[in-house]
Amino acid sequence: MSFRATALLSKTFIAGRRSTRMTAASATTTTTSGAKKQHTIFFDLDDCLYKNDWKVANLLTERIEKYTVGKLGLKPGYAYELYKKYGTCLKGMMVEKILDEDSVDDYLLWAHDVPLEEHISKDVKLRDMLTKVKEEGYPMYIFTASARHHAEKCLQLLGISDLFIDIIDVRAVEWATKHDEEAYERAMRIAGVEERERCVFIDDSTSNIKTAKKMGWHTILCGTKGRDCGSVLVCAEANHIIETAHEFSTEKHVPPSVLADDQPSK
């Protein structure tokens, strides 16, 4: 493990256990009219708020492969099989008793120790979009399957870390993945949302979109091409489909009321 990763262990994971709010400035969502909107918006992070042809995703996959093969002795490729089956390699390893909870911190630090600054940079257009949503009074959360320290670094590099109320990471949902309904239930509890139809969800994974839709959330698929196949994604469970997060707008994608039979639209 690198010195950088070791330093993060003491600074980040302790803070993650406390599930503290990101900043005092982002803890309260305000609008020019002073009214809080009824819907709460949950944004996925990796390959959703930023897109770079899965460069970061591929780096993370390589790190996970090195850990599972080199440290745990798993066969090559099995980590990705676990990811596809369970939603994250971590969840798969825990379900199959390959990794115990005492080893999770070491795994998460190893897996996320990649040079993000080489692949993610400030995105003014994204910040403008998110600032507008925040000023309109919509509470916004990051809802990610990754670790808090990874999400914090990504948001800092993008220049948008002050715009979200909190990060709901894999630890916050008690290791559930976005393939599991429990993850969405726990995200709602963290955000203080009681009505499922008041949740708006933006994610690049069709599997996650399907589970969110089953939960009664309003869904926006962000991205139109699959990572593995490169073909055009089809997802009937998506209320809307957008190419990138920059296209998101509350006028188009946050409904006054959610209809279960809404059809996907551009």
Description:
The chain is 39% helix and 9% strand. With 266 residues, the protein is an alpha/beta fold. It folds into 2 domains: 149 residues, HAD superfamily/HAD-like (Rossmann fold, 3-Layer(aba) Sandwich), CATH 3.40.50; 63 residues, DNA polymerase, domain 1. The protein has a 6-stranded parallel sheet with strand order 3-2-1-4-5-6, sandwiched between helices. Helix 9 links the parallel strand 4 and strand 5. Helix 3 packs across helix 4. The N and C termini lie far apart (44 Å).
> Low-confidence parts, pLDDT < 50 over ≥5 residues?
1-20, 23-34, 258-263
Order of helices and strands: HEHHHHHEHEHEHEEH
- Number of discrete domains: 2
Structural class: alpha/beta
**Mean of residue pLDDT?**
86
Contiguous helical run count:
10
CATH class of the largest domain: Alpha Beta
Q: Could you give a short account of the major beta sheet?
A: 6 strands, parallel
CATH-assigned homologous superfamily of the largest domain: HAD superfamily/HAD-like
* Lateral strand order in the biggest sheet: 3-2-1-4-5-6
Query: How many extended strands?
Result: 6
Helix fraction by DSSP (H/I, runs of at least 4): 25-40%
Any idea what the radius of gyration is? 18 Å
CATH architecture classification of the largest domain:
3-Layer(aba) Sandwich
What is the percentage of strand-forming residues? 5-15%
List keywords for this structure.
single chain; 266 residues; alpha/beta; Rossmann fold; DNA polymerase, domain 1; 6-stranded parallel sheet; 39% helix
